[in-house]
Amino acid sequence: MFLYKYRNNLKLFIFWGVICLLANVICTAANSYDGDQGYWAGWVQQLMDKGFGGFDGNYPPLYVLWLWVVAKVHSLFGVAVGKTFFLKFICLWPVFFSHLFLVDWLCRIAEKFNYPQWKKHLLLAFIALNPALLLDGPIWGQVDLFPVVIAALAIYCISRPRYIFLASMLYVLALLSKFQMIAFLPIFGGLFIRNWRTSWKGLPLAVVGAALVFLPFIVGGNLLPMLNRAYVMTMSQYAYATYNAANIWILLAGNVAPDNVPIWGVSADGVGAILKPIVLGKILFVIISVFALVKSILCKNIRTAFALCSLNGLAFFVLLPGMHERYLLYAVPMALCWIMWDMRRGGIPSLLITVVAALNVNLINSFRGADVWTIVSVMGCVALVLSIFVIATPKIANKTVSCLENASFPSWMPYALLSAIVLIEGGFLAYRSRPVLVPTGDNIVLLTDLKWIKSEQSYKTPRMNKSVDDHELIAGNRIYRYGIGAHAESDIVMELPENADSLFVRAGIDAECYDEGSAIFIIKVDGKHVWRSSILRGRGNVEEANISVQGASKLELMTDPNGPNNCDHTDWLNGYIKLR
Known about the structure:
Distance between the termini: 72 Å
Mean pLDDT: 91
Radius of gyration: 28 Å
Structural class: alpha+beta
Number of domains: 2
Largest sheet: 6 strands, antiparallel
Number of strands: 16
Shape: globular
């Protein structure tokens, strides 16, 4: 499992491994789901300020350890914590490596079967470019793949005498990464019972693994509160039949319908007590889980184990109330394992699980964003150049392909390449994401400290050092500590100091609008137009103004919505007056 014992599939892994990591890095440029990025930012800030003892999030502890690393990276580079691309990119490192490992592992497994080469390519393409995994991870910004890969390894290990001592530890670590891994407990428990003569030997290692994960919280005196928030309080967090999950309750009750109201308008008395989604869903799921448990105890091969994991993961999403749009993702890696071991019977179910999971996530957060346009445009140009090269110089193209086919690469090459990419891009993003500082001194006066004569705008009121929706000022993928958050159309008039010399200010659309919103920024001095920006858009660049204000008494900052004013969140950033 862990060492390559073959060479035929090595190039296959290198080819699809490189494609997998490139797909993950490219998809990360898409717009993430704002709510989850807000959670990451808040929790990273807590860990930075208060450590594990002051962490009050409701996330399981293993991934919180990685968020602590993310906090340390922000501190090391002096980057303020916010819903930036840098935060998303660093938080997703475990997902990148989990996806690459999944391709690597299943490529090794493929060698055990007498699949033709084209079929191996098809299977690995389905794994490396799986739309559900890409939509949930690098696009959405979630880390659901990380715990499922650990859980899949636990299922594999408990079915293999050679690795059975690792199984319990792996499954415990999966649970400590995501509580939803309990969906696979009937299968793991059944296999544990079946192999009880040896499976129990892994329990001490599981205790050690859990203790190491708990240690920072024990030292911080926060273990029990953390476990209560992550594993108890979250169970009643969403009292809905379904929360954007396209499952049976969409059909029977409707989206975000209460989970304690009987379906079909039946009275809550008598049989109606059972027809409540919170009751009926649990009953149905328990029935499937008991079936999976019995089948696992009788299970004689690993393909059945992964088939049962796929079934229970699907039942977890389809039948239980309170599910989110992403929660079918947990069944996808299990289905990919199933199709690798049993393509004939697992092919269609695995494809359907992937399609439903991908479509459900796409309904809430699709593959879009201003940076995506740039990347896709570059890819189109590369495709054109490559096509011209292949057609115009066929002999050179054939020779190049032959050299690549005959080249020898080590099995760790995709991991080394991914490590280099994340480190280089992470360092670049850290440098680019540093907060923009304002000069200090007796001759510097911030615009936020000036006396305002008038302020008018079409939505809410201007905010000091916050966006119009009360978030951090973020534009051009950088955080600004000082500025004015407005909304086009807006007009702010200020009184200038008598000895004012020059004005320095930046302008941009706040990142809370993603790629929406557009506006033109205008500056007047004593009623005269002195500066006008181009049309600035969400996720676009920031423009800077440097204007002489000598002898002037009034400064006017205006924004024009340039048409409809939907999400025209305009920021005047790090503005200051330099005195003579």
